[in-house]
Amino acid sequence: MKKKDLFRQLDALKNEIISLRKDLNKISNEKELWFSKKEGFSRQIREKISIIRESREKRDALTKKVKELKEKRAVLSEEIGKKISEFKKLNEEKKKLLSKSRVKDPYRLKSDIEKLELKLETEAMPFDKEKKLSKTLKDLKKSLGEASESMEIMAKAAGLNKEINEMKKNSEIIYNDVQQTAEESQVLHESVLALSREVDGLKAKEEESFKNFINFKARFAGINYQLKENLAKMGGIREKINKFNLEEEEKRKLKETMLMQSKEKEIEEKFKATKKLTTDDFLAFQDNIKNK
Fold this sequence. Notes:
Blueprint: H1 3-100, H2 106-122, H3 127-146, H4 148-272, H5 279-291
């Protein structure tokens, strides 16, 4: 192959290498861009999954609390039911006793007795009237004594009714707590679902970015391999060109040596023939001395 053909190949390879390097830089930038996007999506996914875990823990804790509150309210409701049944029995018993008694309203009778006692203690009145009121008071107290069982039952019923009302208030408080806690749990649950959907979307984007990264990475590797091959080819061509240059240099030096030897022989012959030396002869003679 001729030297000019080698230079032609070398120039073509240089242009191809420049083009490949441009493509390689462009693809490298694309590759890094998609890798950066993939890492960004991965980071967002990790952050959202962390929030999801925290929200799930809070939601589960609230759900557990709701369950415990419902169980507590169920126990309380059962107790209220028992108390109401007991209250109804007392009320029935009170009605039976009152139906048999002359005193239909013992507490009103008690109030009347207290008023009458106060009147006897604080008001001045004729003896006959006082005696009459005292007898009336005695009769009323006797009647109240007969109604003592009814009053005891009524007192129990009143106390039980108060207890039932208090338990109902507590049940209502627990119910409101259940509603509020369940609402908070639902909000967290919906938040978890929304974040999970976001994570699914981010995972799809992450996967797409990773595929693009792998694609550009493969293209980068292919072009890089081609570039290395071309650089190796260029190195081989340069070696051949250097070999050509070395051969040409050796030929040139050989030609110069042969020319000097020929000139030297010519000068020697002129010396022998006592011929006149020219300026060129002197210069050639000086060069010959220098080279020696």
